[in-house]
Amino acid sequence: MIRIVIADDEELIRGALVALLGLETDLEVVADVADGAGAVTAARTHRPDVVLLDLEMPVLDGIEAARALSDAMPTVIVTRHARPGTLRRALAAGVRGFVPKSTPAARLAEIIRDVAAGERYIDAGLAAAALTEDESPLTPREADVLRCTRDGLATKQIGRELSLAHGTVRNHLSSAIAKLHVDNRVAAAAVAWDRGWI
Amino acid sequence: MTQPGQERPRADADVRVVRWSSVASLWLVVLVGGGVQVLIGTDGPTTARTPVLVVLTAAATVAALASIPLLLRPAGGASARHPAVLALLVLAAATWVVALVPSATGSAWSFTLAIAGGTVGCLLRGWVRVTVLAGTVVLLVAAADARAEPAELVLVGTLALFALMPLSVVWIHRVVLRLEAARRTASDLAVTEERLRFATDLHDIQGHHLQVIALKSELAERLLPGDPERARAELSDIRMVAQAALEDTRALVGGYRTVTVAVEVRNAAAVLRSAGIDCTVRIETAGMPDPVGALFAVAIREAATNTIRHSRATTASIELLRDGDAWRLTVWNDAPRPSERPGTGIDGLRQRVAPNGGTVDADRSEDRFTLLVRIPVPARTAVRP
């Protein structure tokens, strides 16, 4: 028997998934929760074989929850449509399955079985989207300073964080701003995040 | 990539440049006019009124300099009763009268009057404007020496030019503002049209699907007590329609972009690396025609997707190189999975490259899966160095 925890903030979808996966003879839904933090708690309590996580959830999103869990158990991310960079982030977080929400429950059950058996499953459509993304024009350092900017750090704090001189941080920021055709560093960080470059 | 938001600040800056260069050129006209007036006016015997005229000219010039920016305000010209304009008018008229009345000194002291008339003309509209400008020219001609020498005529002509110059500059500035406003309206309209098109597409797709789902659900509900088998068939249809609706929406929102094959290879390597697979890349695609690149892109997508999906690989490699008269793509990973459905993707790939004379070989050995795609260099490209 494969034991599953399901996390999805949409009650109707979660209810339907619990019911449909519960119909499979070899699957058992041991807990269903509405947010990422709940998923982490439930997974640590119930020790399931697979954790099914919605990508967009309150408190912790699916990838953050997966990062907390994937050392201990396999996680599968279910998403409506993936933003650029999401697949890469998910894989880096140790996610073992990446499937669209339109996957029929019977197919999802097969994927859960594969993942529980130690396989990895990535939906072909989502993978193709990830392979046709625009390439980042940013250097690694520019990406670093934008990542810090997105975390709300001031240029001085960024310098301390990355062990860079204040002037160097400003140079990286202004070249990133120029490359992304925006007016300020906050907008640059937002654009870079949106395209999956940081 | 250009976004509509980026063009605005640039366009705003351009409009500011036009405004301030217009102001600067009119300031120059005023300074030249005032300077010439003093130079020509004082060229001759100095009388008691000369200092008065010089002072009046200086004051009128200052008033004119203050008035110019009022003409070129972004929101349209100021009122003709603005203090600076009134001061300009009074001072210029005073200069003209003082120079003319006791014993005429010719047109020399008329420059400030020409500028004052031109400035006021810009702030008025319709027939009033025409009257003021024509009146100014008449006054200028009237002040000219009756026994006009040719040089004097040139002077009158120059004065008329000074009277008409401000209007032409201000007019051009207004046209620029109007064009910019029109461009803005057009770009807003384009955004609105795109939204409308998107909304229509979405409604066409979802409206139709939802209608079918609603009808079939109703049918299934009624069939359920008497004919559960038919109700089940209806429910299965409903599921398929909903599925189609989801796919259609994804296609509408997503719409894969096309990137070069080099970018695709690097993206594939990045995705494989984030999955913890050590991936080496070698690419040399110089001179590769786009259609060939597109075929390789399909092959790379297939191979990369397979690597992350089906194998527990730890090492992989992607090589796309020119090999004599063909391009050769080699993708391998170190953990082949015994595939249940052998090579459906590879068969598809083979069919796609066959028309270009390409070949596809997949080799599954114990510890390695290798995909080899060869596409010959098209004849025309091969001739080129």
Record field, number of beta strands of chain B = 5
Q: Quaternary status of these chains?
A: heterodimer
What is the 3D form of chain B? elongated
Q: Which topology of the largest domain in chain A does CATH recognise?
A: Rossmann fold
Quantity of strands of chain A, as a count? 6
Q: How many domains would you count in the coordinates of chain A?
A: 2
Low-confidence stretches of chain B: 1-5, 381-385
Portion of residues in helices of chain B? Answer: 55-70%
Write the element-wise H/E pattern of chain B from the N-terminal end onward. Answer: HHHHHHHHEHEEHEEH
Radius of gyration of chain A using CA atoms only: 19 Å
Straight-line distance between termini of chain A: 40 Å
**Residue share in helix of chain A:** 40-55%
Give your account of this protein's structure.
The complex is a heterodimer of chains A (198) and B (385). Chain A has helices at 11-23, 36-46, 62-69, 86-92, 105-116, 124-131, 140-150, 155-162, 166-179, 185-194, and strands spanning 2-7, 27-33, 50-54, 75-79, 97-100, 121-122. Chain A is of the alpha/beta class and 198 residues long. Chain A folds into two domains: 2-131, 3-Layer(aba) Sandwich (Rossmann fold), CATH 3.40.50.2300; 140-194, Arc Repressor Mutant, subunit A, CATH 1.10.10. A six-stranded parallel beta sheet of chain A has the order 2-1-3-4-5-6, sandwiched between helices. The model of chain A has no long low-confidence stretch (mean pLDDT 89). Chain B has 385 residues and is α+β, with helices and mostly antiparallel strands. The chains are: A alpha/beta (198), B alpha+beta (385).
List the helices and strands and how they pair.
The complex is a heterodimer of chains A (198) and B (385).
Chain A: E1 2-7, H1 11-23, E2 27-33, H2 36-46, E3 50-54, H3 62-69, E4 75-79, H4 86-92, E5 97-100, H5 105-116, E6 121-122, H6 124-131, H7 140-150, H8 155-162, H9 166-179, H10 185-194
Parallel strand pairs in A: 1-2, 1-3, 3-4, 4-5, 5-6
Helix pairs in contact in A: 2-3, 7-8, 7-9, 7-10, 8-9
Chain B: H1 4-41, H2 50-71, H3 83-100, H4 111-123, H5 126-143, H6 150-226, H7 228-253, H8 261-274, E1 278-283, H9 290-310, E2 315-323, E3 326-333, H10 344-353, E4 359-364, E5 369-376, H11 379-383
Parallel strand pairs in B: 1-2
Antiparallel strand pairs in B: 2-3, 3-5, 4-5
Helix pairs in contact in B: 1-2, 1-6, 2-3, 2-4, 3-4, 4-5, 4-6, 5-6, 6-7, 8-9, 9-10
